[in-house]
Amino acid sequence: MSKALEGVKILDFTHVQSGPTCTQLLAWFGADVIKVERPGAGDITRGQLRDVPDADSLYFTMLNHNKRSITLDTKNPKGMEVLWEMVKICDVLVENFAPGVLDRMGLTWKKLHEVNPRLIVASVKGFGPGPYEDCKVYENVAQCAGGSASTTGFREGPPLVTGAQIGDSGTGLHLALGIVTALYHRTHSGLGQKVDCAMQDGVLNLCRVKLRDQQRLAHGPLSEFSQFGEGVPFGEAVPRAGNDSGGGQPGRILKCKGWETDPNAYIYFITQAPVWEAICDVIGEQGWKTDPGYATPPARLPRLNEIFGRIEQWTMTMTKFEAMDLLNQYDIPCGPILSMKEIAEEKSLRETGTVVEVDHPKRGKYLSVGNPIKLSNSPTDVKRSPLLGEHTEEVLRDVLKFDENRIAAITESGATGARPRVAAE
Ligand code: COA
């Protein structure tokens, strides 16, 4: 079976999380992703949050599967010479340096396009054109600037960032879509183009419903928010909604048996309108089926606290898994709050390849998140991340087709750094 992106060569100039998320996906789909790293140091995440001495961190390994690594000092003329050769033969250059870095390297869009008109140049930056375009940005800055933090958390508390890496990994996903779209366009136009994703834009795209609510506010209170039923007036901007569900089907996180000691003994419960009668039967409030104060969705909105309080009395009588089993018999939408430990141990996620065990020569076995996008004719085979510069020689010889003399001159110049020691696998 061939891989969907087989034959596509990526000059992967990414680091940290946003760019590597994108190129890892492309690698999983079969692209040949050649990661260019600074000799001796590499992607800074190799050494960040290290848990095993001298081994690449999980931060790095979990974002750089299925790639090759070549070390090149782009501040060395020979290093730049090699880079330009890579530009000539690659389909896509992906980067997420700070604004201006690529231009300082001499890799302007104009010059890149001249040298290889088919090259797609894909970039992540913190902000698009505007007052903040020159700023360096990390995950949480993007969450704050993209509307996520102001709408996450409880009304009475401060803005909150979320554990999901919507700024970094979210933007990497957006970029990957931009790249495959540009690759498709190139099949008609024959030309590459620039693909730009700003992290602020990516987060805002994921917060689309909150911009929706901002405009609804002009026409009255947001009746699905708990604060509506509590009689708390709305201000000028969309407030934080706690665990209220944003859509038309009110939901809430409710305690289950064991919540006093287990921080994750909770279930998300949705009072979906079509199954309201089943909910009444399950919790033993048959009267709510016909009582005009409870029977219709609009009637229920002002009393969500009371209704969820009653449902919680019921959920607290069983574990989140028992509640899940029972509620699913009635098609009542709900979901247990799963801890990372529970997710790591979940059999079905292992079976689908969403959670995979990978072996690494320096750290041994570790768990990773596999490809969440499943293609029926292009299955993903997750391979360990490369050691720093592990494929330098291989790429110079087999990909760039340099002869021994040229490779020797490059090595001699120090452009590739010292040859890495590869542990026996
Ligand atoms: N050889 C030699 N030098 C190299 C190199 C190589 N192979 N690769 C990179 N460099 C140099 C660059 O030329 C640059 O030097 P310069 O400033 O002298 O031109 C330098 O490394 C630093 O790059 P920079 O991107 O500024 O790194 P940083 O660690 O200071 O900033 C970020 C990190 C993430 C804040 C920044 O890259 C950024 O804002 N990126 C865009 C947004 C983004 O993706 N953020 C999320 C990250 S998960």
Describe this structure in words.
With 425 residues, this protein is of the alpha/beta class. It has helices spanning 18-28, 58-61, 77-89, 101-104, 109-115, 139-145, 168-189, 199-206, 208-217, 226-229, 276-283, 297-300, 304-315, 320-329, 340-345, 347-352, 392-399, 404-413, and strands at residues 9-13, 32-37, 67-71, 92-95, 120-125, 194-198, 251-255, 266-270, 334-336, 355-360, 364-369. The protein has 2 domains: 9-206 and 344-413, Rossmann fold, CATH 3.40.50; 243-332, formyl-coa transferase, domain 3. The strands form 3 sheets. A 6-stranded parallel beta sheet has the order 3-2-1-4-5-6, sandwiched between helices. A 3-stranded antiparallel beta sheet has the order 7-8-9, covered by helices on one side. β2 (32-37), α2 and β3 (67-71) form a beta-alpha-beta unit. The chain is elongated. The structure holds coenzyme A. Coenzyme A binds next to α1, β2, α4 and β5.
